[in-house]
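[step 3/7] inverse_fold.run input=structure_tokens len=488
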């Protein structure tokens, strides 16, 4: 709950507040299943929204959707409200936007192959070093030829064309083996099977849409429906890394602010790190470290703190530890490790309390006024004001169709991109019958039709990034203002 200019999250001997100015120092919510992690996440998200800070969360189990509806009164809830002395408690729904890579329970989230770029694709497709080099050449060729890579169909077409016309390109770009090109093509196909055919396309997500507040000044809670996505951990983790990286590269540096600009919550965070290749973990580590100064806070939710790699864990300043079990020696060790990360409270033994905590009760340590980890408090998390359960199919539809973003994202656009350009180039080549004799590469892509919006090529985007985030952020702001004026 937003109270006294702070985020009131729990009540022990006294009220426990998360300080807005340190909310960008990230956090962790841990505990065995059924101990109250998801409810804690909701209570935090509600408080951020109330404070005017937009939130993004991945909903792995489908159980946070109730945030958009007012909670239902019950005896249990009344008891908790009274016990914790929550004055002015009222059930209410919060402004939410639903998103879904598969477009079923939210606005479709898409990105383009160009925007994802060769680094991320290499990771997503698990390419070897040699294949990665070839993929980079392919991107360079596309940038030079003016071929836009939007969906996987574009990428396949380009790989096929370059493979057929390899000799023409090798002089300028370096050697590319048929085997490597073939291997990449096969990887693209497995990527498509894994949902890449849906994820890559236009209109691509405009990150600005996650930074909205409603007419009452409450921050929107953006919920990425991830039930299906979670069955594909590779796509899930790559998506998350891409997202954080994209936000990181586009947001301007803001240093320390009164409150964060956006807060992320990743439930079932172990999914991000289990079996993730070291490069991916490194990327998360790096982004977590640096994104703070862009005013973004990241909160991981997981059963055990040890699910999170140490370098990431050490960046998480605000902690809520729900109960852990300690039956096996391994569990006992995990409890001990978890206890050691807390600043001891002379009133109790941390290690004992962790196993005694009830549902919705936790050891809480938020950064204090000086930015130091606070002494561990044993406290009850406030009850959520929104609905605890999952919303219905019809509710989802009402939320999606009723949103002003629906029109923008619903329909997929298939513009004139690399696939069509290659088709044209091949036709032309067939007619002339001798590509080599023509002596030069076909530059059909320059003649773009049917496109009203200017997309950025990979090369241009790279320059953007070099030019500086501040400049591009201003540019984006202007663009938005202009388009709002134009389309009013
Ligand atoms: N702060 C709380 N206020 C009220 N009820 C709570 C609270 N925390 C947990 N509960 C109850 O416990 C149940 C399990 O909590 P949940 O957050 O789903 O656990 P976890 O995510 O750790 O598996 C909830 O459905 C709710 O009934
Ligand atoms: Mg949960």
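[step 3/7] decode complete -> sequence:
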């Amino acid at each position: 709950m937003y109270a006294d200019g702070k985020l009131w999250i729990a009540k022990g001997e006294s009220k426990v507040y998360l300080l807005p100015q340190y909310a960008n120092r990230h956090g962790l919510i841990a505990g065995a299943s059924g101990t109250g992690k998801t409810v804690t996440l909701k209570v935090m998200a509600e408080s951020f929204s109330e404070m005017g800070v937009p939130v993004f969360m991945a909903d792995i189990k489908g159980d946070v959707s109730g945030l958009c509806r007012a909670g239902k009164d019950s005896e249990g809830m009344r008891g908790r409200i009274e016990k914790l002395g929550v004055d002015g408690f009222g059930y209410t729904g919060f402004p939410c936007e639903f998103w879904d890579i598969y477009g079923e329970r939210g606005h479709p989230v898409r990105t383009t192959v160009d925007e994802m770029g060769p680094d991320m694709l290499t990771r997503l497709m698990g390419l070897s070093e040699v294949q990665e080099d070839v993929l980079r050449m392919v991107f360079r060729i596309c940038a030079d030829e003016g071929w836009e890579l939007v969906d996987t169909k574009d990428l396949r077409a380009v790989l096929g064309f370059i493979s057929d016309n390899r000799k023409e390109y090798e002089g300028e770009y370096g050697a590319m083996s048929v085997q490597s090109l073939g291997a990449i093509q096969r990887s693209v196909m497995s990527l498509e099977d894994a949902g890449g055919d849906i994820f890559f396309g236009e209109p691509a997500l405009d990150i600005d849409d996650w930074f909205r507040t409603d007419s009452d000044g409450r921050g929107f809670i953006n919920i990425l429906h991830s039930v299906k996505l979670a069955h594909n951990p590779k796509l899930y983790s790559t998506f998350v890394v891409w997202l954080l990286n994209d936000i990181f590269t586009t947001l301007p540096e803001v240093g320390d602010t009164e409150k964060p600009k956006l807060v992320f919550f990743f439930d079932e965070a172990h999914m991000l790190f289990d079996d993730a290749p070291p490069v991916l973990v490194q990327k998360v580590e790096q982004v977590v470290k640096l994104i703070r100064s862009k005013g973004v806070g990241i909160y991981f939710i997981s059963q055990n703190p040890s699910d999170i790699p140490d370098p990431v864990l050490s960046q998480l300043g605000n902690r809520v530890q729900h109960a852990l079990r300690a039956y096996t020696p391994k569990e006992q060790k995990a409890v001990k490790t978890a206890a050691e990360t807390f600043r001891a409270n002379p009133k109790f033994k941390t290690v004992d309390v962790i196993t005694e905590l009830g549902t919705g009760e936790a050891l809480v340590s938020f950064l204090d006024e000086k930015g130091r980890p606070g002494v561990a408090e044993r406290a009850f998390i406030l009850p959520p004001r929104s609905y605890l359960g999952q919303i219905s199919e019809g509710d989802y539809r009402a939320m999606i169709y009723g949103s002003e973003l629906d029109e923008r994202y619903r329909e997929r656009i298939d513009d004139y991109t690399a696939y069509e350009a290659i088709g044209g180039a091949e036709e032309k080549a067939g007619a002339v019958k001798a590509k080599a004799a023509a002596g030069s590469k076909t530059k059909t892509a320059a003649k773009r039709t049917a496109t009203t919006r200017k997309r950025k090529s990979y090369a241009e985007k790279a320059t953007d990034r070099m030019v500086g985030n501040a400049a591009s952020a201003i540019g984006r702001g202007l663009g938005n203002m202009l388009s709002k004026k134009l389309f009013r």
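[step 4/7] annotate
The domain at 2-109+205-406 is CATH 3.40.50.300 (Rossmann fold).
DSSP finds 19 helices and 13 strands in the chain.
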